[in-house]
Design a protein that fits this description.
The structure is a homohexamer. In chain A, helix 1 packs across helix 9 and helix 9 packs antiparallel against helix 10. Chain A is built from eleven helices and 14 strands. The two termini of chain A are about 35 Å apart. Chain A is globular. By secondary structure, chain A is α/β, with parallel strands linked by helices. The first copy, chain A, has a domain of about 220 residues: Ribokinase (UDP-N-acetylmuramoyl-L-alanine:D-glutamate ligase). Chains A, B, C, D, E, F: GO terms for molecular function: kinase activity. Chains A, B, C, D, E, F: This is Sugar kinase.
Chain lengths: ~325, ~325, ~325, ~325, ~325, ~325
């Protein structure tokens, strides 16, 4: 790929009941897909930049569902692997009460856990601007973890920037196992995204602004602490930065963090200054939470101006 | 339980797209449940006899879906276990082309595989007439297999008849692993149901009538070879028996074998002669295939006469 | 039944259009069930206590729908009667404008009106802790009214506590006919639930706290005045009590009163003090209004702590 | 009305589950309407002739559904009465097995039973060509029966032809009560439609051709015996007539008889000869059974030629 | 028509995705109809006054959908023309974000653009009280514009009041083309409805109250400036008038203006004073925005009092 | 593109009611896409060969729907143009009676008609194996026709084979206008697909086998006459060829011809002999008709063997 973002991880089929309430009373579930990394790739593609995603899916209809939908969004999936040994992973996202989302995963020993270093196609990475990773993939299995490490090494060799969203998932691995792995990754990445709780997991305390600076001390040149409805703060190129969240009503908060990352990285690849990166990131997050679906509401570039003209963006 | 049938195994949530075609083009899936053993229990309950089912489900909404629906049909599920370690197993049943069904399972290391001998509640079994087992459960895990063995032993001690439907599932275990286990079970059961291909798997060749007689030689007093649209033949109490299938159009063949077993066992528990057992079994199978769903079409007793009066039942 | 709650009345099929708006523009209606008494029984069962419901349904598919769904929730329906003379009663619940519910009933001369004293199965009542009644049943017909009276008498003989929710339905009988019947019932019950308007119908005026005390003067040891979003006040064992409602958004208020009653009675049966009874009652009401459906949102016991930890419960 | 057909009776809301199977397993039902008389009026209107229907509906949303849909089809409903005393009648049409329809009615003491002679608006009848009646209306109540009698008398006074479709409904009244009433009506009608079983109910035996001739002997100038898939035979203006049914696959047979009647009467009003009346009647019946719904498949005039050119019509 | 309102224009099929979000992610669209003029006619008919609508639709199923639904609401459509040259126009109404509606039209060179003066049936207009027009129709084509002009002339000849809702649609014609045409129409109408932005388009500046008076100076006896959630002001019979909007939550604002016009004109035809006209207009607007659909929420007369008793109406 | 097929034309949004019956009675329609050329491209991509499609869509959500779904299937759409002047074309596909499909188009002056020679991107065509065209595109407008001609010329210059499917659409242009244009195209193509009626339109009479030979005389090296359920015959490289259709039940025949063409061309590009081309073409056609949707049932390569092993393929 020439320019653009490369990412990999596990993307799953996503079943969602159509209304709020107990799943047991639902007659049907809607079929979608979702994965933190492919969400970011879709977000980047919608903003007009090249994006490629790879990973493993089962050699079955849910696997084709995953690939068809990601590819449909203009993301290159040619390096994805169909693994005929296991079925495609899936998740069920319920909303038992208004405002509460509960996700159940069927991914144990699934295709994502079978990722291996040889799945990383050097030809995909060569010429890319950014390799984006999340802290989910190393939690899936030893070989997936090894794949992440190998990809970082390859990226550095090829001169590709490394971006990491910490995305700590307690259900996949305990803190004591996650912390050393994630800290090691932080040390080798250029751009880092974390929540303030995740910063603490990485051993960094203090106000979010302080956390950002301290994390930058570990290695990354750009650190952004995502604070949800409270916006974001960061430490970028040796200076503090901050952005407010846009005041929208949150319909479905899942995926908002991925939209934020996509917005930031797309502007980074476009050579925009950090204020612009954060403004776009906040706008993307606002779009994402306003409609149902993990990524379906992510904005196209021409929609950004509409949104920000309605709301304004506050860069402090 | 006083009188009636006890059975156990794994019942799963069942997702089905509403129409024929590729799953990837489906916008939604319907939520149901299914499991060979609970299907039989529901069939028996609809025919008016006591039935109890137990097994493990996850401590989640899909688990409650399984329990709610089985219990709703009048089957006692009080001995079922909610296992908070793993999510409830599920399956996806597609019809990519008319007349073709393809099922994908998410049950690896699921609640069913965590069945253990201590899950068998002696108080449930005591006083029952029949313990019904399938060849699916021993394939799930060593401990599930051990549970089956322990239940057979307990049943024999308590004077409860043991019924076995071979139900060989090649996806769960290879023939070389299944055959010795299943042969051992056959030896200890009183009533045996098998397809002609399953009879071969058990090492018994020849025409179905011959297979039935030879299988009876291994131990069971009653052997019925289920032949689908060709009806069934058997060797019961030392004599050959046969029944034709009713001439109905098959809308959804999944579950027809379970309906057949339920019909047979319900009449056996009612003290009906073998001709009546087979007639009811055939009628139940015909009802089951006529409407969508694994068990939803199973008949109530008062519906049987309507059906057989329309079609007649041919006992040869 | 050993321990637990027994209740009876009429439960109906419930048709609801999927969205707000005129029914005439709806293309389809969802199929559910509902009835004040079975709602309470389901609420009690979800909180982990034994519950039994009986009543009459038609010998038809809607009748099976009613029985299947109640039984699916773990409520014993073995004493219910299938009446082949009349079809199962049904109701249509529209929401023509947001926040307005309009229910049309098809129950005139239906199975509920055909309840008769012989439908009360002494074996069900024997050993129960509570017989729960509503003021709906005596309004259905003379024989239904007689059935209520007979059941109260039997309960008292058997030493079973009698609980009554006034539930006055103006569409079923005029105040002049209802008041004497309901007052008579109040006199013979141990636990009484009423709205403040219903208390007035019973001839008791004043602030709700005063009404509670005055109603207790008529006989019941425990009186609770349900005040919806304003919480509840009562007079229990000779002392005033009160609880606030939890501050949740009401999506569907139908059934909230039944949830409240279920919560109160479940804790009463568990031997909890009145503050705990009211706290659980308020939590159950809050759960019920938060999701669509008359009873579908009622909580399981393990969900109560989640809710109250989020909201806190104010016992004054 | 100048020219055209006037009819009256009870039209009900119609709830239908979307697929074959037990109603209890349906999650939703579709909302439609149906009634033998309004079906005929719709059929006549679609063929381009004036048609008016009246009757009673409840003053509720289902009543508006009935009126909106009939009026939408171009049938004049201005003389219909909204009766605020009772809710609109409804029916549930299930297909528990392929090819089997089961209808449950909620019409006891409903608006239809409250029809009274004063509901017959002389201004609607004056100038009409045909008053069409069915044997359902007199079965609803004494006052409905009286209304039918009064309308016949008025029609004869005004010189309006009287058409009667026997439509015997055993669930509404027993043969011994129905026969004398229906025979009396037959005596006063000009055009009579009956099934061969209904002809027997009227006391007329023999082959259908013989029945037709014998019924004509009671009074009607035109008698048609509807034989479903076997076509129809009749005795019209003193001579035998017959038509074959068109060879179409029956998806939903309900309403086919009404379509047949509509086709026959529309051509009669247009002055077409009997062969044309029967050909159109048969074509209308064929259209009706080919799509789901009681009347939704009835043809417009320009669709008739398409159909008959595909199939041909055999007039013997 | 004797008394009542006559209107004409283009009514289209209306496709709407069931939820908020990008249309591309919708699996299905709901089928409805809509058109500013038929909306007004439906509103008038629901308030109990005679109403007729005509216009052109294609000779196809969408055309029948349009006619069936308008006629179903009790509006006379006998003068409508089925034009077999072009398909019925349609529109797609998306809600990409909560509170944002986006409509795409497929009406270029459609039936509406083919309206011609000869489509105006003098017999429909004769005896009517009001001819209602919108500024949409003259924008459709030269011949549609000519039809509007011809109808105004005919109305004045027949002594029928002319009502005009400016309804400027920028997508159909630019301001420089629209302004002279609309100003000319304003000069010949008796009752005028406009937004404040539309008043400016007509060349009239100032506060809305001033605009109303100035527009009245151009010819119309009654001028009402619709201000949405801010209510309306006007200049009627030489005096200022005003009404507040009712404080309801807007679910779907499309059609609210048409409901307002229908309410005003219905009361005008009933001879009600201007305060009553405005009160009903405001109540109709409030009903319209409270439920989904362009016209489905318009009130019947007996529903008005319910609404205003809940909210009160403020006539200043 | 290196190797593979390039095609262009107009692809539209496709609205389909979910069941058989009049569209006016449908509550909703499903959203899909379709176009003869993109159908072929999807078919080729599913068989594992590179495929690119281009054309014009509106700059709106239906346009994104078209692009997303084609791209999702692995077809390169990078050369497609978003035209902000007109909305994306759409079509409505009804099934008023079983086995009858009726399509209404909204494409007049749409994006397809605005195709122009400069839309043909030389870089896409360079290196391709086949340029596939249909007789639909030249019918859309003069500039679309000119685009087809220019593309043929460019293809011949670049040494790219030209394939043409006649696809005569009488609704778009009369025979007298179509025939000379299509005959001219036939002269310049290498591979020609036509129905026997289309061959007649091209002025070639006789049995299909004779027509094929005669059409080959006009220029194309390979001519295939598609005969639907009767299979196909052809004249390829100077010799007659034929294939039977596979005996499957046709659920939805639309798109079967495109599947056939895709199968033929995919094998041609793979260097397979003509018998193999025809066998795959027939298998693709059989898959296409077996499930609903214009292209959704097209086979992947690994599904072909399953199908042909079930049915066998008869090459005569």
């Amino acid at each position: 790929m020439t320019g653009g973002l490369v990412t990999f991880g596990e993307t799953m089929a996503l079943f969602t009941p159509p209304t709020v309430g107990r799943l047991r009373h639902a007659g049907s579930l809607m079929l979608g897909i979702g994965g933190a990394e492919s969400n970011v790739a879709i977000g980047v593609a919608r903003l007009g930049l090249p994006a490629a995603w790879f990973g493993r899916v089962g050699a079955d209809e849910l696997g084709e569902t995953v690939l068809t939908r990601i590819r449909g969004e203009g993301v290159d999936v040619d390096a994805a692997v169909r693994d005929s040994e296991v079925p495609t992973s899936l998740m069920i996202k319920e909303r038992p009460q208004p405002g509460i989302a509960r996700v159940t995963y069927y991914r144990q020993d699934g295709p994502g856990a079978r990722l291996r270093p040889s799945d990383v196609d050097e030809s995909v990475l060569r010429g890319a601007q950014i390799l984006h990773l999340t802290g989910i993939t190393p939690a899936l299995s030893d070989s997936a973890c090894e794949t992440v490490r190998a990809s970082v090494e390859l990226a550095r060799t090829l001169g590709v920037l490394v971006s990491l969203d910490v995305n700590y998932r307690a259900a996949l691995w305990p803190a004591e196992r996650a912390t050393p792995v994630l800290r090691e990754l932080v040390r080798h990445c250029d751009v880092l995204f974390a929540g303030d709780d995740e910063a603490e997991l990485l051993g960094v305390t203090g106000a979010p602004e302080v956390q950002a600076r301290r994390l930058a001390g570990l290695g990354p040149r750009e650190v952004v602490i995502k604070l949800g409805a409270r916006g974001a703060v960061g430490w970028v190129d040796g200076a503090p930065v901050a952005v407010d969240a846009l005041p929208v009503e949150a319909i479905d908060a899942v995926g908002a963090g991925d939209a934020f990352v996509a917005g930031y990285l797309a502007e980074l690849m476009s050579g925009e200054p950090v204020t612009e990166r954060l403004a776009t990131a906040a706008a993307c997050g606002a779009c994402a939470v306003s409609v149902p679906g993990d990524w379906e509401g992510f904005p196209h570039r021409d929609e950004l101006s509409l949104l920000t003209s309605r709301h304004g963006t506050v860069i402090r």
